[in-house]
Amino acid sequence: EAQVTQNPRYLITVTGKKLTVTCSQNMNHEYMSWYRQDPGLGLRQIYYSMNVEVTDKGDVPEGYKVSRKEKRNFPLILESPSPNQTSLYFCASSTRTHNEQFFGPGTRLTVL
Amino acid sequence: AQTVTQSQPEMSVQEAETVTLSCTYDTSENNYYLFWYKQPPSRQMILVIRQEAYKQQNATENRFSVNFQKAAKSFSLKISDSQLGDTAMYFCAFMTYNNNDMRFGAGTRLTVKP
C-alpha cells in the first residue's frame, strides 16, 4: 500500500529538549516536504527536498532542521523546541511533477 | 512574494447542490502549479485536483472541476452534486516550477447539509 508514515503521531515535550519526527514514504518519490498547520494560517512549508542530499528552506524554516540521506526518509529535527512550535505537522511526498501526492497522517506536537 | 488568498472562511451547501470555492494568488512567475486539497475531520490531507498554468483547459476530477483564469490569477473549485462526505476544510495552494516551495491559502470550511 502506497503511504507516507510519520512517527510519533502525538508528542508532548518541554522547551529545549531535542526531538525528531520521522517521515518515510514507500513510493520512490523524489519530492518530500514538511508543513506545519496552525489555525487561521493554513499550512506553511518548513523545508522541502527535491532528491537525496538536496534540501531547501520553505516559508518558515527557523528552528527546524532536516536531512535527506536516503530517498525514502526525510526526518524533521527540532534542536531546541519552543512553545511557538506547538503545532500540527505534516510530511508529504510527491512525484517530480506533483501529479501524485501523499500526505502523512500528521504529528500533533505540544511544547510546554 | 507569492501569496494565496481564500476569501471565504466558511461556506455551506445543501446536499446534491453545486458550490464554488474561490481562490486568488499573486505571482510574477509564468510557470506554476495550482492545487486544491481537502482536509476532512480526520485531518488527513487529500489532493483533490491539480492544474498546470500552461494548460488552458480546466482540470476536472469526477464531481470536482476548476475555473482557472490565468490573467485574473484566479483558481476556483466547483463541487457538483455535493455529498455529505464533501464536508471538510479545503485549501488552495500554489507552487512555481522554479522554486518548488508550496504556498497555501488559509482554507475554506465547507459544510454539506442534508
Written account of the structure:
The complex is a heterodimer of chains A (112) and B (114). Chain A has 112 residues and is mainly beta. Chain A is built from no helices and eleven strands. In chain A, the strands form two sheets. In chain A, strands 2, 4, 5, 6, 9, 10 and 11 form a seven-stranded mixed beta sheet that branches. A four-stranded antiparallel beta sheet of chain A has the order 1-3-8-7, with no helix packed on it. By secondary structure, chain B is mainly beta. Helices cover 0% and strands 54% of the residues of chain B. Chain B contains no helices and twelve strands. In chain B, the strands form three sheets. In chain B, strands 2, 5, 6, 10, 11 and 12 form a six-stranded mixed beta sheet that branches. In chain B, strands 3-9-8-7 form a four-stranded antiparallel beta sheet, with no helix packed on it. Chain B is globular, with a radius of gyration of 14 Å. Chains A and B meet through strand 4, strand 5 and strand 9 of A and strand 6, strand 10 and strand 11 of B.
